[in-house]
């Protein structure tokens, strides 16, 4: 996948997460999890953009590792929303699938860069 398409996917994911968080029911638990999800979900694209501007291979790998961590954390917060019964699984299926695909692609990119 090319850089611009990946940037677009991470931006769309961030926008979808913003919409999800805005629609969460008000309450202490949903507010806390929503805030964490919003933070991690929107940082995926920001950190990927930073990785694209990396100054060296090691810098790019380091920044991609942050993208991987943030995407994995995003999945964690969505799992908590489901397991706490705040949001139905069916409502998060697409977002979770996209987040998992992003993790897989970033891991593959890191492996490729380390192999060079």
Characterization of this structure:
The chain is mainly alpha-helical. The protein has one domain (3-115): 23S rRNA-intervening sequence (de novo design (two linked rop proteins)). Helix content is 86%, strand content 0%. It contains four helices and no strands. Helix 3 (57-83) packs antiparallel against helix 4 (89-115). It is elongated, with a radius of gyration of 15 Å. 27% of the residues are buried. The model has no long low-confidence stretch (mean pLDDT 97).
Write the layout of secondary structure elements.
Blueprint: H1 3-23, H2 28-52, H3 57-83, H4 89-115
Helix pairs in contact: 1-2, 1-4, 2-3, 3-4
How would you sum up the major sheet?
A: none
Number of strands: 0
Structural class: mainly alpha
The helicity comes to: over 70%
End-to-end distance, in Å? Answer: 18 Å
Oligomeric state of the chains? single chain
Roughly what is the average pLDDT, rounded to an integer? 97
How many domains make up the coordinates? Answer: 1
Order of helices and strands: HHHH
Binned strand content:
under 5%
The CATH architecture can be named as Up-down Bundle
By CATH, the superfamily comes out as 23S rRNA-intervening sequence
Annotated CATH topology? de novo design (two linked rop proteins)
Rg (C-alpha, Å)? 15 Å
CATH class: Mainly Alpha
Globular, elongated, flat, extended or rod-shaped: what is the shape?
A: elongated
**Parts with pLDDT < 50 across at least 5 consecutive residues:** none
Keywords for this entry:
4 helices, 0% strand, de novo design (two linked rop proteins)
Short description:
The chain has 116 residues and is an all-alpha fold. The protein has four helices and no strands.
């Amino acid at each position: 996948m090319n850089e611009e398409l990946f940037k677009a996917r991470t931006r769309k994911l961030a926008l979808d997460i913003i919409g999800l968080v805005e629609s969460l029911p008000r309450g202490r638990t949903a507010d806390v999890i929503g805030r964490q999800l919003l933070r991690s979900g929107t940082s995926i694209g920001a950190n990927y953009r930073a990785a694209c501007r990396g100054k060296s291979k090691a810098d790019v790998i380091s920044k991609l590792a942050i993208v991987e961590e943030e995407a994995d954390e995003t999945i964690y917060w969505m799992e908590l929303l489901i397991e706490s019964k705040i949001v139905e699984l069916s409502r998060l299926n697409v977002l979770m699938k996209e987040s998992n695909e992003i993790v897989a692609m970033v891991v593959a990119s890191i492996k490729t860069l380390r192999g060079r």
